[in-house]
Design brief:
This protein is of the alpha+beta class. Helices cover 37% and strands 29% of the residues. The radius of gyration is 38 Å and the shape is rod-shaped. It starts with a helix and ends with a helix.
Length: 322
């Protein structure tokens, strides 16, 4: 009996082990590799029937040759001029006080030298007042140069700029450039464009370099003046001429370019009513056109109207298998 019980226990153990070993793939103890189907790829070309071509309104054209100036990209911010106004007011007050104390000192010295109408003590007090006013004037001048640059430290530059700033006919803009990308020569003008919208780029006159580096860019930059100013605090994109020869490129209408699956694409006609997608690299956009620096030839026929309709036909063909 004892041997029978031991045999039964041994049989149960062997059977359990065998069952565990031969368990199906759904067993929680067995990890089966899972495979995912690759996403279906769109066909590289789309062919339209005569009816589809007529309905899509496809228009093609060859790219136009353009020359692109070499630019360094930075970011600009419209500055609130109020701190500058306050500092200039302080400077002008210090100038007036120093002028007055200087004249008083001269008068007392003359009186002290020719008569007894001015005492030595009065002359010493006048000297002390003139010295104080001169120090306050020098402090205001130094703070303008330290905070706003040498260009605004000059009275002639301020006299020409401040009235327009007061009337909001112009605006001060700080332009910051990343370290290592600062042009070797300071430009006289640069281009500013909004981060949103299609208002185009506006030329701004460069006053000079900024006296302090931005804590994020840790590079350099410029102070510039722009007309038709946006509100203070507005962020802009800056395009600073970096010198060197222009770059040859091809320009296509903005309507020809679209994005799909993270790529920048255009459609190129390869045969009558047959079009294929072409990946392109763009340069800085113009107001009504886009420069393509890589991916096209001058003889390519580009779809300038109807690119989205072609993409819809292409996706529909991929889904239906046609």
């Amino acid at each position: 009996m004892k041997h029978f019980i031991l045999g039964s226990i041994a049989g149960l153990l062997v059977g359990g082990l065998a069952g565990w070993w031969l368990a199906p793939a759904s067993s929680p103890y067995i990890q089966t590799p899972t495979t995912q189907a690759e996403p279906s790829k769109l066909p590289s070309a789309v062919n339209l029937s005569a009816e589809q071509f007529s309905a899509a309104g496809i228009v093609t054209a060859t790219p136009s040759p353009v020359r692109l100036a070499n630019y360094t990209t930075g970011y600009a911010r419209v500055i609130d001029p109020t701190p500058l106004f306050l500092l200039v007011a302080e400077l002008e007050t210090a100038e007036a006080a120093f002028l007055a104390s200087g004249k008083e000192l001269t008068r007392l010295r003359q009186l002290n030298a020719t008569s007894d109408n001015a005492s030595a003590r009065a002359v010493e007090a006048a000297e002390s007042a003139a010295l104080r006013d001169r120090s306050l004037l020098a402090s205001a001048q130094a703070r303008i140069r330290a905070g706003w640059g040498d260009s605004l430290g000059e009275s002639k530059s301020r006299a020409a700029l401040l009235p327009a700033l007061t009337m909001r006919e112009t605006a001060l803009v700080r332009v910051d450039i990343a370290a290592g990308e600062i042009p070797t020569q300071s430009p006289r003008t640069l281009q500013l464009e909004r981060l949103t919208g299609n208002s185009g780029a506006e030329q701004a006159a460069v006053l000079g370099t900024v006296p302090q580096a931005d804590y994020q860019f840790q590079g350099g930059g410029y102070l510039a003046v722009m007309k038709s100013p946006p509100p203070p605090g507005t962020l802009l994109r800056a395009l600073i001429p970096s010198g060197g020869d222009d770059t040859a490129a091809l320009s296509v209408p903005a309507s020809a370019v679209f994005r799909h699956h993270g790529q920048t694409l255009v459609y190129v006609e390869t045969a009558p009513r047959t079009y294929e997608r072409r990946s392109v690299t763009l340069g800085r956009a113009f107001i009504d056109a886009v420069p393509v620096v890589k991916g096209l030839a001058a003889t390519d026929l580009i779809v300038v109207t109807g690119a989205q309709q072609l993409l819809s036909h292409e996706q529909l063909g991929a889904q239906t298998g046609l």
